[in-house]
Amino acid sequence: MSEEAAVPAGSRPSLLRRLYDWTLSWAERPGGAWALFFLALAESSFFPIPPDVLLIALAVGSVKRSFRFALICSAGSILGGMIGYAIGAGAWQATRGLFIPHLFSQEAFDKVQLLYQDNAFLAILTAAFTPIPYKVFTIAAGVFEVGLGTLVVASAIGRSARFFLVAAIIRVFGPPVRAWIEKYFDWCAWGFLALLVLGFVVVKYLH
User: Fold this and answer.
1) Number of domains within the chain
2) Using one digit for the tens of pLDDT, what is the confidence trace for 35-72?
3) Is residue 155 part of a domain?
4) Residues spanned by the domain of 88
5) In which region does residue 174 sit, left (phi positive, over 0), alpha (psi from -120 to 50) or beta (all else)?
């Protein structure tokens, strides 16, 4: 979850802060749900601001529609992951310079390769749910020839769990919980992922 950066008086906001503010502004415009879909799609391959920013704002503004927004966000993100996969599989040599080092580092990309050699499904699931940059994993999945089905299934579980968790917290506790989510979501994500992985382990050894 990206936090709003403090901007000194009289200074020009950073590009990242301007993108953050632009993203958040869609919560007050018509077509906010469409903006959420395309933001989630873009973030899965190249956009730096996570869709949670707009998801939270929209859900707080219309608590009863929070699960609908989570579904829209999940669908856009999963489709975006497939686009990232296509970039990695079919256009990586032509587009590599656009991603490294501007959106992620070569070191991060190399680490993802090692994770894929160990357990690609778990690596994608972790990136899909936690604050780890998801776009590195979607593109790398195409480059390193991870099965598309593995990407889609792991992404569907991880992304949906993440966005519906945000929506559920807002649905249960209402708008006052917004600041708490923005401050502590990363810790919640890691804790929930640990429980999710533990559940997979338990199911595996019960059979």
Assistant:
1) 1
2) 999 999 999 988 888 888 889 889 888 888 999 999 99
3) yes
4) 15-206
5) left
